Amino acid sequence: MATSSKRVRKPNFSEKEATKLLELVDKNIETINQTASTLRANAVKKAAWQEIAKEVSATSLVHRDEDECRKKWRDLKRAVSAYRTHCRGTGGGQPQPEPPFYEWIFKNLRDSVALEGIPVNILDTWDNSVPLILPGDITIMDVNNGK
């Protein structure tokens, strides 16, 4: 007969560990979110996650490896995304509770991902009848009429 061995679960991330994880992710956000997948870029990302895991482990009695920290970060982002999707829904059902660290994650995701996109030439979308006032007391008038 085969002996059955149960997998031993680690405890959930404590609030202290999750807070430390978010601080370290914030510090390394550009490295972690790199889209390049070259050998060098992957090595840099792996080193960043190893350093994050080392510092998170130092804050508690539980050892966390890089895969656990990476998964926790991914799960936190997914929880925020699911919450935002639920909030944009048309109703029905009970309201969903706000996920932990919602404000911090949403702010950082919005700053690093959602605002990046296709650059828009402001003069292409500008109503020529209204002067455009920029910071530093610079005013752009109707470019076509030369005013």
From TrEMBL:
Pfam assignment, any one: Myb_DNA-bind_5
Cross-referenced SMART domains: SANT
InterPro entries, sorted: Myb_DNA-bind_5 (IPR028002), SANT/Myb (IPR001005)
Gene3D superfamilies xrefs: Homeodomain-like
GO CC terms, sorted: nucleus
Domain Myb-like residue range list: 5-77
PANTHER family in the cross-refs: AGAP001331-PA-RELATED, REGULATORY PROTEIN ZESTE
Protein name as annotated: Myb-related transcription factor, partner of profilin
Annotated source species: Plakobranchus ocellatus
